[in-house]
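Re: folding output
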Amino acid sequence: MTGRRLTLLVALLALTMVTATYLQGALSVVAAFLIDEFGVSRSQLGTAFTAFSLTGAFSSPVAGTLADRGTRRVLLGLFGVAIVGWGMIAVAPGFGFVLAGSVIAGLGLGAGNPATNRVISRWVEPRLRGLVVGIKQAGPPLGLLGAGLALPPIALAVGWRWALVASILVPLVGAALTLRLVPQDDQEEAGRATTTDPGAARRAVIWLTVIGTGVATGLSAVLAFVPLYAIEAVGATPAQAGALASAMGVAGVVGRIGWGAVAHRLGRPSNSLLLISAVSLAATGLVAAAQFWGVGWLWLGVGLVGASMLAWHSVAWLAIIDRVGLAGLGRASGVMQLGNSIGFGLGPPLAGLVVDHTSSYQWAWWGVFALFAVLTVLTGYVRAAGR
């Protein structure tokens, strides 16, 4: 593969992940507009995140199986459902349409990692995979960055609906790159690369799925409510809240690329994942303390969230690709994506309920802290067991 084609392929991978996950960040950034327009509570708004994430969860095993049969079709379907889903939300006459659009867009969430992991396993040489996985996993925080920077000014100028319409340019570009770069049928390659230890691969998928579900639960709560927390509890302006979301995106981009590039040097994936979990504990504590210490501490906290929680999956997906091999990689990725999406679906409504019933964000943040304390201990156990 030529350098130029590899560059375009990496761009496609990143755009795929931006598209697959973008709605999570977009709904968070325009949350205040949605609450005002449709008169919903925070917990009701959380159901849109849940609809998006759980659709991705339960469609991911099917998407993984389809990706093993033909990655191009799955990629084009991902971009197509994003266009339809985002468009439905943009023209929604009521909150029910927001939920329906979230469900449709969630189909793309389930397909993102199975399809992109197969592309990497098939066309990227092993010595470059860590970096490429890091770049493609930088797609979600890049989407968060773009949403935080672009959506607030567009929404304030012409309305949040037009802000979502403008976002549709991303999946349109992704579909064009797919048509150019990805062959129509890669099924004949399915048996080329297989794992040499199926038992070890199966154990790796199970552990990474269990821990990843917990990481996604805590991370999604932070992503969904940090902008509102900044406005309602810390005293930030809407523009500052959008900038905080962007800061998480920037830190996440750097963290995912960085962790992806150095993961092999640190040995077993559990070494990197243990460090990431420990930093996540500190990050959550700083987010909680910002209500009392000021917005400056929130900036530091969200920066560490991006560098830790948002970076976890770079290492996890690299481990899946290396352990499983091409044959069955779509299905294995779909299983792990199932757990991740369930976690992303649980976090926002749980956090919203806690905030609504306690009239405070503190219990929600310390709940996330406790969750990552458990995950850190569990990761340490996996590391000690040599998984």
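--- second protein (sequence, then structure) ---
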Amino acid sequence: MFRASLSAVLALLLFLSVTAIAAPPPSKDDLKEAKRLATDAQRALKKKDYDKAVSAFEAAESKVPNFEYAFGLAKAVELKGEPIEAWRVMERAKSYGVPPKETLSYDGFRLKLEQRLYQDHAYLELDVTPADALVREKTDGQWMPPHGRWVNRSLSTLRVEAPNFIPTTVQWHHPTGYAAKKRVELVPANAYGRVRISGSPAGALIMVDDAALGSLPRAETRLLPPGKYTVKVEKDKYLAYSQQVDVRAGQVTDVNVVLEEAESAGQKLVKSKSFWGWMTVGIGGAAVITSGVLLALASGKQSEAEDLNATHISGYDAYLSEYDALESDISSFAMGGWVSLGIGLALAGTGTALLVADSLEEGDESVEAAGADLQIYPLPTGVGATVRF
């Protein structure tokens, strides 16, 4: 028990010593100078020189911070035509402690100032959690605790912030003069999460739930309520990326993205089974037509040879030479025709196989065109081809 009492005494002594160091008592010269400045301020008030009175009271309070000089400054500021600033100074005077003999004077001035302010202003008071949060207002700067201010009648936009809490914006409508209270409770930051996106290529646009966030190689969202969000990454000449992510309280969800280059129309066409199928069928068809022309030419030459045999009247040597030429043409045209026909049928069969494979793939069935079994064989009248899958 003795040790506890001794600890308490030591703590009290330490507090008093720190307080004394932080706020040393005014010297005799300060007291004398402050009194002189207050006298000058009172004289200036009598002459209605409010600027001089305000400056003198401010200087006196800086020398000796007490109720007397702060309260005098509040009155001078009110006479100068700045009722809101007068209210603030009056609140500061109250923090020094209102002497009993000044209570009536203080209350009367407060009531007078309040009545004047209510004609054109509204008094807003925030009950904020945490209590040390900062409140910012566009036209009235920063509010320190306690969070109460006089503002012009209309609409106030207040930004409430505190370390380790989610900041929030408060819209407050106050068209008429009155005292209004509002409670604002900030949500701890550890109740929210973030999404961090990294990857390549640089410059790719990042969107979270269709809202632009930034660009690769790295971007991070603001604090988000837990839940599911859709991350999209896009860039010209690359395939778009989309993923749904789960944001958890107090955690950062990492997403790594590497976009793939998009194929050009030509590249897609070259890789298409349909393209090669129709190409092969077309070439095969052209080869078949060519074979028909060559075989027709061979048939015509054959008719000429037969006519020559039946009608020739020239010498044997001339006949033989002309007949041999016709036989050579017949052989060349027939060989070319049958070869073209075989190639044409083979190509047409391969092209058909590719088109069938492409059609089955589009129907979500797996077919390997390379697995087709193509056979070409001779026939008494030409060449045949068979395709098996």
